[in-house]
Amino acid sequence: MRARPRSRAVARANFSITSPKCLAFANFQRMDSPNRSEDRRILGATLVGTTIEWYDFFIYAQAAGLVFGTQFFAPASSDNPSLAQVFAWASLGISFLFRPLGAAIAGHLGDRIGRKKVLAGTLILMGVATTLIGVLPTFAAIGIAAPLLLVFLRILQGLSAGGEWGGAALLAVEHAPKGRRGHFGSYPQIGVPTGLALSTVVLLVITAIIGQEAYLDWGWRIPFLLSFVLVIVGVIVRAKVAESPVFQEMRERAAESSAPLGVLLRDHWRLVIRAALIFSGNNASGYMIIAFMGSYATKELGHDQVSVFLCVVIAALAWIALTMYSGGLSDRIGRVQTFLWGYGMLIVIAVPVWFLIDSGSLWIFGIGMLLFIPGLALSYGPQSALYAEMFPREVRFSGVSVAYALGSILGGAFAPMISQMLFNRTGMVWTVGIYLMVICLISVVALLRTPRNLADAEL
């Protein structure tokens, strides 16, 4: 009987806080603790911030497809409505050209002063630009100044978007335990479809209350003005989140680079290009749902705008669920493998889906839109984790931000405009599918050159 206490003492000694068993047990608890209050706060902040950021971005995309062609590009629309719509899509795409600049600035600052401070700045900039669009006079009121000011504010949105995603992705992934980076990284990813769903619901409610004619006349301004309130909420939520532990460690070791952008472009430019190409196919496919499909359904197929909005909301909700799933899936089967499954699905349906969309049936149109979602989610959910694992910590914010911005230019920047031009020239909407297929194949080639064991490395 006397030996038992001594045995328990030995057991306690063997399970001390420095023993391998204890460390393994602590790591297991950390890996299985997504509901901890700090984790919830971090993941909630990345989700809320990216949702607001992309809400602002998407209401512009939807307004570009429905309103801006006639309200801000009147001279072209008087003789050629299709050309006016091309100009409206170009105003959507031009901001993407400024994303790399925003990414470079935010990435440089994020690698030097931290992720948290930069994220507050990007959110405020997006909110200010979006709110000002909501009060901007149209071409009928101030002439050529209207489209010029619209493009300027759109450029500010592009600068903001260039820095937002990289900071949010790293804040989530760098807080994640090893083995759950894909799951944690999926939270800023679902901010995109959540922002799409939120913006579409707002448009749906406004249209239902005031009618489609009033919405096209003046009601389109309301979603832009609501952004001011959302940004205040987002800044408050993000202010309560701790800085990334990886950046804190860099700061304590004085390891942050004095010129991270220069180091990135000198030593890792091939990695930036490959990461950008990996994203380009997904981004082009995403903007088909965000912008072109809705515009095509209402203007060319004659579907009711409210019904099309409902289809977009349903597609966005499916996108949210499958993106969450794909992040966790990448923790089990690997990032590259998950991406390849996603792009394989997009390539297979790229052309056939347009025959469904062009059928004239609203129900079949909705099914066609939903068929895009599995491939879209599988090639997007793991992106935060993959990018964080691809770049060394000293240039990570700069690397993921610049790669994401370049991928947006190569993929989604002018995808709606190119799609509109293809349709205008050929009269066959399935040619858009050929365009998407080519971009997705390029992304697959970039993925096949990416190591599959990145998740094993320490961040």
Characterise the protein shown here.
The protein is mainly α and 459 residues long. It has a single domain (38-456), classed as Growth Hormone, Chain: A (Up-down Bundle). The chain contains 24 helices and no strands. Helix 16 (269-299) packs antiparallel against helix 24. Mean pLDDT is 83; it is low at 1-34.
Write the layout of secondary structure elements.
Blueprint: H1 3-14, H2 20-31, H3 37-66, H4 68-71, H5 74-79, H6 81-94, H7 99-113, H8 115-134, H9 139-142, H10 145-173, H11 181-210, H12 212-219, H13 221-239, H14 245-252, H15 260-267, H16 269-299, H17 305-333, H18 335-349, H19 352-357, H20 362-378, H21 383-390, H22 396-410, H23 415-426, H24 431-448
Helix pairs in contact: 3-6, 3-8, 3-10, 3-11, 3-13, 3-16, 6-23, 7-8, 7-10, 7-22, 8-10, 8-13, 10-11, 10-22, 11-12, 11-17, 11-21, 16-17, 16-20, 16-22, 16-23, 16-24, 17-18, 17-20, 18-20, 18-24, 21-22
**What is the β-strand count?**
0
**Percent in strands:** under 5%
CATH class annotation: Mainly Alpha
Mean pLDDT level: 83
| Total number of domains | 1
Number of helices: 24
Largest sheet descriptor: none
What CATH calls the topology is Growth Hormone, Chain: A
Looking at the structure, what is the overall shape?
A: globular
Spatial extent as radius of gyration: 23 Å
In short:
This protein has helices spanning 3-14, 20-31, 37-66, 68-71, 74-79, 81-94, 99-113, 115-134, 139-142, 145-173, 181-210, 212-219, 221-239, 245-252, 260-267, 269-299, 305-333, 335-349, 352-357, 362-378, 383-390, 396-410, 415-426, 431-448.
